[in-house]
Write a structure and sequence with these properties.
- The protein has about 425 residues and is an alpha/beta fold.
- It folds into three domains: about 5-70, Roll (SH3 type barrels); about 90-295, Rossmann fold; about 305-415, Rossmann fold.
- Helices cover about 25% and strands about 25% of the residues.
- The protein has ten helices and 21 strands.
- The strands form five sheets. Strands 9-6-10-11-12-13-16-17 form an eight-stranded mixed β-sheet, with helices on both faces. Strands 4-3-2-1-5 form a five-stranded antiparallel β-sheet, covered by helices on one side.
- α4 runs parallel beside α9 (about 390-405), α6 (about 315-325) runs parallel beside α7 and α9 (about 390-405) runs antiparallel to α10.
- The two termini are about 45 Å apart.
- The relative contact order is 0.09.
- Residues about 75-80 have low confidence and may be disordered.
- Bound molecules: glutamic acid (GLU).
Length: about 425
């Protein structure tokens, strides 16, 4: 979408460009804000979009009487660096940015949010973090997490291994929230031996929004690294709508359960390992692994694994190629772990060709129960392995890891039945909320 010829001319003659702070006078009222790109899609070409002081974008239809004045031109990229000289006695944390909303700002090329904020930029926006730790920024990628794949998980795990073995006291990874659970699970299996906490965090609102949850989540993550020796992979995000509670979720048990709420992340089939209040006080609910002297990353991954969500009427023919050519199939089955007869036959064909097939439940809450009905028993007879209360996405990542880190399918199947990183539970707690 572009501005209309008339509006473009008005902007040009005022000397206004994207990022200029402008004063807009329409029908006697003045509005001040930063000029944003035109609306995307089929937006009205006579509407000018400015970012107001409160951080929100507003669109105004210009007319012949509108006047546009530039108050300030964009300063370029020379943001003021906060004082980040290492301070004696503070722990050393490495902040690794990968993109996502927490690494985004409004006004990207397509007129919406786009990633591009580096770890360094994040620290500049939150200079207080440097009072509690010496934080080294590091950028690995800058993408929305729907574009993250197993190569990114491997690069992350290797970087974390290197930084921890070089003496870091903790790692904070900023990540898009959409597939954060997958990355958290992948790092949980890859980093079985850890010398310090690895925290993955993100935000539901970009850092330049006044309502952003980025600052709270990042502060809680750094605080957790500084004051706990919990050497595991955790996701830390808001646990309430306010800034007064943060949940520490195990990397293999966490799921984004709401598209937009700040407290979208929940531990599934277990309670969060810990909670932190708004002052940084931590209350543990469960055990955490002991720190190892060194960190060791086992980063091999097989990409020949598929994740199928069963649905009524699912046509086996549509999935045949994918199923018979894969080394591993994770099914999010209905109820206790079921699929139709047609899909069961397809699974049999794939298993007979050497694939490993495992069953999770699309109910998300509760374990599989494949001895209750004939369907479940029949699926087990053909070789489908129940995954108890493991999340489908965790089972998917685990199967990728198990296939790549064992000598044969038999060993990989044994690994799938073992609990490697708290991914399935015998620890039933009465206060599991679902
Ligand atoms: N879809 C984007 C991502 O997962 C934005 C969502 C977010 O970070 O909250 O990276």
């Amino acid at each position: 979408m572009r501005y209309s010829a008339e509006l473009s001319k008005m902007l040009a003659s005022a000397g206004a460009k994207e990022g200029s702070v402008i004063s807009l006078t329409i029908d006697g009222s003045e509005y001040v804000g930063t000029l944003m790109p035109p609306q995307s899609g089929s937006g009205d070409p006579d509407i000018i979009v400015i970012r107001m002081k409160n951080g929100y974008d507003a669109g105004f239809r210009v007319n012949k009487g509108t006047s546009i004045k530039v108050l300030e031109q964009p300063a370029g990229k020379a943001a003021k660096k906060s004082d980040r000289k290492p301070k004696k006695g503070l722990p050393n944390i490495v902040l690794i940015a990968t993109g996502g909303t927490i690494g985004s700002q409004q006004g990207g090329a397509k007129g919406a949010q786009s990633p591009g904020l580096s770890a360094d930029g994040l620290l500049d926006m939150m200079p207080e973090l440097s009072d509690i730790a010496n934080i080294t920024p590091k950028d690995i990628i800058s993408v929305f997490s729907e574009n993250v794949n197993s190569e990114h998980w491997q690069a992350l795990a290797k970087t974390i291994e290197e930084e921890l073995n070089n003496g870091a006291d903790g790692i904070v990874v900023t990540h898009g929230t959409d597939t954060m659970g997958f990355t958290a699970a992948a790092l949980s299996f890859m980093l079985k031996e850890l010398s310090a906490p690895v925290i993955i965090t993100g935000s539901q609102r970009s850092t330049d929004r006044p309502s952003s949850d980025a600052y709270g989540n990042l502060l809680a993550s750094v605080r957790f690294c500084v004051s706990s020796k919990a050497a595991g992979v955790y996701v830390i995000m808001h646990d309430s709508m306010n800034d007064d509670s943060f949940a520490v979720h195990r990397g293999t048990r966490v799921r984004k359960m709401h598209t937009s709420r700040r407290d979208a992340f929940r531990s599934i089939n277990t309670v969060p390992v810990a909670r932190m209040d708004g002052n940084g006080k931590i209350t543990f609910n469960d055990e955490v692994p002991k720190a190892s002297a060194k960190t060791k990353a086992f980063t091999k991954m097989s990409d020949d694994v598929i994740l199928l969500h069963f649905y009524p009427g699912m046509d086996p023919a549509l999935f045949r190629d994918a199923a018979v050519n894969s080394k591993g199939i994770v099914i999010a089955g209905s109820g206790l772990g079921h699929v139709s007869d047609g899909i069961a036959s397809l699974l049999k064909e794939a298993i007979d060709k050497g694939a490993i097939a495992v069953m999770t439940s699309q109910c998300i809450n509760g374990p599989t129960g494949m001895n209750v009905y004939d369907t479940g028993r029949e699926l087990q007879n053909i070789g489908v392995i129940p995954m108890n209360d493991m999340l489908p996405e965790t089972a998917y990542v685990k199967l990728m890891w198990a296939i790549a880190n064992t000598k044969n399918a038999k060993e990989a199947k044994e690994l799938m039945k073992d609990t490697l990183s708290y991914e399935m539970g015998d620890r039933r707690t009465t206060d599991v909320i679902w």
